[in-house]
Each structure stands twice: as structure tokens, then as C-alpha cells.
Amino acid sequence: MGRIVEWFRTIARRIRAWWVALRAPGQFLCDSCRYDYGDACRRPERPNARRCEDYRRR
User: DSSP string spanning the chain?
Assistant: First the structure.
């Protein structure tokens, strides 16, 4: 059962990454992210992330 759950999580991450890329093509996600201020985001990709699991649109 654990394999199935992990498989669904992987599929969900891929679908989310595809959706985010579709909404912001050719842009850095940090420019339109809700967490783009101060120390709210500590990801090493910041401020030039093209993929991010924490991305939330403003």
C-alpha cells in the first residue's frame, strides 16, 4: 500500500509542476510567489527558481 501512496504523490507533484510551469512560462517563479519577501523563503534556488514545490501565486 505504501508504494501506491508514494506513486500518487509523485504523480501529484508532476501535475503541480506542469500546472505551475503553464501559468508562468519563461518567468522566474519567485517574481510572482506569495513567499517572495524577507526570510519567508529559504530555498537555495531563490530568486531564480523555475520549479518550486512551495510556490503559491500572490
Answer: -HHHHHHHHHHHHHHHHHHHHHHSTTS-GGGGBTT-STTS---TTTTS-S--TT--B-
Calculate mean pLDDT across residues 45-55.
Answer: 84
pTM exceeding 0.70: no
Residue 33 belongs to domain spanning: 1-58
Question: How many domains are contained in the chain?
Answer: 1
Q: Tell me how far apart the alpha carbons of residues 57 and 55 are, in angstroms, rounded to a whole number.
A: 7
Q: pLDDT tens digits, residue range 14-46?
A: 898 788 777 766 678 888 889 988 889 888 888
